[in-house]
Amino acid sequence: MPVNRSPRSTFLRRGAAVVAALPLLTLAACGYGSKSTTDNAKEKVAAGASKIDGLGSVKIGYFGNLTHGTALVARQQGLFQKELGATKAGYQIFNAGPSEIEALNSGSIDIGWIGPSPAINGYVKSSGKGLKIIGGSASGGVKLVVNPKKIKSLKDVKGKKIATPQLGNTQDVAFLNWIADQGWKVDANTGKGDVSVVRTDNKITPDAYKSGAIDGAWVPEPTASKLVAEGGKVLLDESTLWPDKKFVITNIIVRQDFLKKHPKAVEAVLKASVEANKWINANPDEAKATANKRLEADSGKALPAAVIDPAWKSIQFTNDPLASTLDTEAEHAVKAGLLDKSNLKGIYDLTLLNKVLKAEGESTVDDAGLGAS
After folding, report:
1. Is 362 helix (H, G, I), strand (E, B) or coil?
2. Angle at alpha carbon of residue 84, lines to 82 and 85, rounded to 5°
């Protein structure tokens, strides 16, 4: 597979536009990732448990987003540790896709929950040798929220300043594609054009909205609902743009050498993920509260009901990676000029996930022809 080394292939670069657009806002909150302590009694290693594959630990990465709710719940419920036995479950929390890919490549984490765009970029940049997508986690949970005083209809978005989390990230690509579908033009790299696309870290997007630095944002949950709580209005739910209102927002990825050396450990993490999704879908209210407890433990602050209630309802938790939609998202990135046409054949390896699903009596899932031959 050819590697794209041109500047536009850096699918997840942080845009400098945020600095110019937000001079009064601190960027200190944009730290890429931080270690988190294990503070849940349910994560204690069970007496008599043995190590998997002789491993001392398995390092798991995720974001403090509700779209990573599977990981939040699985950790809070102690499911990762239960399935890993005496192999310690370790964690690292991220704010941005590039840092998680860097951590995966360096061995700082072994397995991670991540959006489709950084997964695609990580795969392409490594010539198909860096990672594999081994499972799905979530669909939906992305909205265009706007200031209703400035934007009253979709056509009013033209000429306005709209935030996305990062240049080339999953939401950025989706918004650029939507802009193109309206017949408007924007330079993908600079964000300048018929719409001003302002790349802004999710942590400071609500402050940017309150200050008037942006007129709206195309963002994942809970940021979207935080904006609504500040007086914003949901103008568009991205799910309405997809067949059956389903599209991948969160995948599970693994470092390829770790998958080859420690398949039993990978299978254990997938078991925990499947168990978490089953429990989430059977107990949505309790699962929402559990995810919020994990967010509070990780960040020091729980989400208020006005934010988490609508946010949680808009996310579907699923084991299906919705592979065909990932391929479509890659096409959108090519269309936007952020990615050269690349062969994604082999990006998926759903063997262990389907093994777990069969054992649990669940339906197996498909890789849309993008699995290993």
Report:
1. coil
2. 70
Q: Is 359 exposed, middle or buried (0-12, 13-18, 19+ CB in 10 A)?
A: exposed
Query: How does the average pLDDT of the chain come out, rounded?
Result: 89
Distance CA 355, CA 357 (A): 6
CA distances from 239 to 9, 225, 284 (A): 26, 15, 20
The stretches of the chain forming alpha helices (DSSP H) are 17-21, 69-76, 79-84, 97-106, 116-125, 170-181, 205-211, 223-229, 256-261, 263-282, 284-299, 305-313, 323-336, 351-359
Q: Which residue has the tokens 């309206």?
A: 182
Q: 83: which residues sit within 8 A by CB, 6+ positions away?
A: 268, 269, 271, 272, 275
Among 224, 108, 225, 118, CA closest to 166: 118
Residue with tokens 């500040």: 230
Q: What is the DSSP letter of 217?
A: E
| ∠ Cα 133 135 137 (to 5°) | 120
Tell me the HSE value of 175 on the side-chain side, using a 13 A CA sphere: 35
Q: What is the pTM of this model?
A: 0.87
pLDDT tens for each residue of 163-185? 999 999 999 999 999 999 999 99
pLDDT tens profile 119-140 = 999 999 999 999 999 999 999 9
Give the CA dihedral 98, 100, 105, 109, nearest 10 degrees: 170
Beta 233-237 vs 142-146: how paired, if at all? Answer: antiparallel
Q: What is d(CA 317, CA 277) in angstroms, rounded to the nearest whole number?
A: 6
Tell me the DSSP string of 75-102: HHTTHHHHHHBTSEEEEEEESSHHHHHH
